[in-house]
Design goal:
Shape: globular
CATH superfamily: Phosphoenolpyruvate-binding domains
Largest sheet: 8 strands, parallel, barrel
Number of helices: 11
CATH topology: TIM Barrel
Strand order of the largest sheet: 1-2-3-4-5-6-7-8
CATH class: Alpha Beta
Number of strands: 8
Structural class: alpha/beta
CATH architecture: Alpha-Beta Barrel
Length: 269
Amino acid sequence: MENSMKSLKQKFKDCDLITGMHICLSDPAVTELCASLGYDFLWIDTEHSPMDYQSILLNLIAARAGGTAAIIRIPDNDPVLAKRVLEMGGDGIIFPMVCSKEESDRAIASTLYPPKGIRGFGPQRAVMYGLKDAAEYVNTDSLEMIRIIQVETAHTIEYELDAMLDNPWVDCVMLGPCDLAASIGRLPDITCKESVRLQDKALEKIRKAGKSAGTSIGSTDAAWIRSWYDRGANVISCGTETGHIINGASQTLAMIRGEAVTVLDGGAI
């Protein structure tokens, strides 16, 4: 099957290269624009952003309008928080700071209906408010959701990750380099020797288990991003819409001022 014809779920299963960017603002127009760029998914972040549930809903609608999958990171590994997001019909969910097999299994269980899990029934936009067949959603569509856990501490990588990877419903394990560095007292030095050792150890374990391995980083530095891919990460979510606005505007401003200085120095003005 050609990669372009695969579903995003299948790309995760096959450990293909998958690209994402982060959405932190509440403006659906910006999200729609970003969704039109060609990323595999947009990471709708509610852990470190001011988004409320209505903002999440508008961002999901905008992502669909732009033609890109939307995966929502909730602020905590809590089935109650997960439930409302799941009912909105996003393409996937990310659980932050998952530190043990027990926590990982609980997160995954909150996305699955009994007897597989503990999710309560009441989908809204996920079944287009009743226009879609509920049985089809339960037995097919809900199972196609992308389930991601985020590993962000040294202890988890060293002692818990292997057991966490046994859960067949985990589609991807994402590393959080900043909190990982914080767990060893090195924040914000995410490239220190010990941080990189832990990153490499986690990537090796995840890929050995046949899972997609990813990273979530704000940086758009080409060498740093390439290093993640070279070390085994196939899911790379990098940059934010705010960062792209700042970078683009700053570069243009510097260019304009540079041109003006050149003109002034040359005596043309």
